[in-house]
Amino acid sequence: MRDIYILGISAFYHDSAAALLKNGVIIAAAQEERFTRKKHDADFPEQAISYCLREVGISPQEINYISFYEKPFIKFERLLATYFQYAPRGFLSFSKSMPVWAKQKLFIKSLIEEKVSHHPRILFNGHHESHAASAFYPSPFEEAAILTMDGVGEWVTASFGIGKGNRISLVEQIKFPHSLGLLYSAFTYYVGFRVNSGEYKLMGLAPYGEPAYVDVIKKELVDIKEDGSFQLNMKYFNYCVGLTMTNNKFHVLFGGKPRRPDKDVLEQRHMDIARSIQAVTEEIMLKIARHVYRQTGQKYLCLAGGVALNCVANGLIAKDGPFKKIWVQPAATDAGGALGAAFAAWYGYLRKERLADGVHDAMRSSLLGPEFSNAKIEVFLKEQGVVYEAIERVQQAKVAARIIAEQKVLGWFQGRMEFGPRALGNRSIVADPRSLTMQSMLNVKIKFRESFRPFAPAVLADKARDYFDFDGDSPYMLMTVPLKERLRLPIREEQNRLSGINKLKIKRSEIPAVTHVDYSARLQTVTLESNWLFYDLINEFYSLTACPMVINTSFNVRGEPIVCSPQEAYECFMRTDMDYLMMGSFLVDKAQQQKPLNKRGKSNEFEPD
C-alpha cells in the first residue's frame, strides 16, 4: 500500500510550526523559532517544513495533503467586525494590520503553493478544531472529553466537546472578546512581562504574593458563572482597539501604570496581582472542567490551547477535578495546532481508524525534532578547536551524574530535540536539586533571568510519589504538584515574617532548588521507555546521592529559543557559567577551553541526520 504523508502547518500569530504524519504516525514536528533563532517566530515555517521533509526523505511533491491550522477568512471577518464595532477607535491598529492581511495572511493557499508545493489538496481546519485534534487524537484515550482554551482563534476563545474513536464533536464555545487567555495576558502585560511568552513568569511570580485583588477582579473585570463561563468588562481592556492590552481605567483600578520591563522593580503589589489573577484563572478552569464532566459524562479529559500550559491550574484539575485522568498536549500553543491540523486531516477528513490503549500516547515523548550524530558533533568540535573528551556510551550517564553530584552545572545535548515549549531531557541544563543556592545561581548566572523563577524536578517515575502528593504521571512537565507534608521543613517565626522575593531565602525541603515558595514543583516524571538515556542519568544520580531527581531546565538563555544545533549549544555553554557540556558522547569542560567560537561556522552547515 502506498504511504500517505500529511503536512500540518501553523503560522502568523505566534509559535509557527510544521508537523509531518506518515500513515497517521508522527514522524517529525518542530517550531520555526528553533531554526531562525527568533523566539516565538510567527513567520511561515519554511525551515521547519524543510526539516520535516528531510527527516523522512521526501520531496514536497510527495506530500499527499497539506493542512493549515485555522481558517484565515473567518479570522479576517472577526478582525473587520471588531474594528467596525469600535470605530473610529482602533484606527492605528487597523492601519498596521490590514496591509499584512492584504498582502499575505488572507492568501494562505497561494503562499503554501509558493513556499511548499503547487498542491491540489490543501485543507483548512478551524483554530480550536486544530487544538481539539491535537489534544484528543494523540492522547491515550479511546473516548474523552476535550477542553480547549487560548487567546483567540477565528472567533472562539474556549470550547469543549467529546472525542470518540476517530470523531470529534465540539458542543459549546466562548467567543471573542471574552477570553481567559487574553485576560491572563492582560495581567502579564500589566505586571511588565511580554505577552505570549511572559505568562510563565506571571504564574511563577504568583506564589510570592497574596490574593488581595481577587474580589476586585471578580467585581470589576470578569463575571464568572457557576459553569465556568464568563464575560469580561471590556471598558478596562484595550486589545480590541489598540496596540496594548489594558487601558487607563485598568491602570487606575490596580494602582498605577503598567510596570516597565527591565526598568521598574517588581513590587509586592505586582506579586499580589499575579497571585490574584492566577487564583481567578484556577477558579474558572476548575469550574469549566466540572461543567464539562457533567455535560459529557466522560472519565478522561484532554486539554490544549495556550491556557492549557498553566501547569498550576492543570495540577488543580488533576487533583481536585472530577476526571479520573487528564492529558495535556505538550505543544499546547499554536505550535501544536500544526500537529492538530495534520491529525484532523488523517482522522477527520480521511476517516482513518484510530486505536488507543488507554496508557500510551502517540507523541513519541515529544522528541520529534532534529538529531545530530556523534560524527556530526565531532566534526563541529574539531572545526571549532574545542577541547573535548570522548566518553563511552555505557559510561555517559555515570560521568554526567558525578558532575551534577559535585554541584556542577551540566549542559545536556542528546538525541532528537523536543517539540513544544519544554525541554524534556534532550536539550536540557541539569543540576543538583539538593543545593540551597542552585535555584538563584541558575537563574542569574546561567539563564540570565529573574531570580524568582522556579525550576522543575525531573524525577524517576516510580519514585515521584515518595516526594510529591500526586497519583499520576507528568511526562511533559505540565503539572504543578505539592510536595508531601512530611518532607516540608518547618518555618521559623522570623522566617515567616519574610515577604515577596525574600521568601527565597528560606530552605523549605531537602530538595530546595526545585521546591517553590508555596511548596509546589512543576513535575516531570521520567521512565526508561520515554527517554532511556535521561532516565539512566537520573538513576545514576540516585545511586550516588539517594536523590531520584535532577533539576531540568531548558538549554537556552533569556530571550532565546531552546538550542537546536551543536553550534547553538556550544555558544550558549560558553557565554554562561555552565561548567560542563555533554553533546552526544563528547564531554566539554569549560575550564579547558582556550579560545572563543570560530564565528565562521554556521548552524546550517551542520544539518541534522
Can you tell me about this structure?
With 609 residues, the protein is of the alpha/beta class. The protein is built from 20 helices and 21 strands. The chain has a nine-stranded mixed β-sheet with strand order 13-21-20-14-15-19-16-18-17, sandwiched between helices. Strands 3-2-1-4-5 form a five-stranded mixed β-sheet, with helices on both faces. A five-stranded mixed β-sheet has the order 8-7-6-11-12, with helices on both faces. Strand 20 and strand 21 form a beta hairpin. Helix 7 packs antiparallel against helix 11 and helix 15 packs across helix 19. The longest helix has 29 residues.
What topology, given as strand order, has the largest sheet?
13-21-20-14-15-19-16-18-17
Strand content: 15-25%
Low-confidence sequence ranges: 600-606
- Number-wise, the strands total 21
Helix content: 25-40%
Q: What would the principal axes of the Cα set say about the shape?
A: globular
Mean pLDDT: 93
Rg over C-alpha atoms, rounded to the nearest angstrom: 24 Å
Number of helices: 20
Major sheet size, sense and barrel closure: 9 strands, mixed
End-to-end distance, in Å? 27 Å
Structural class by SSE content = alpha/beta
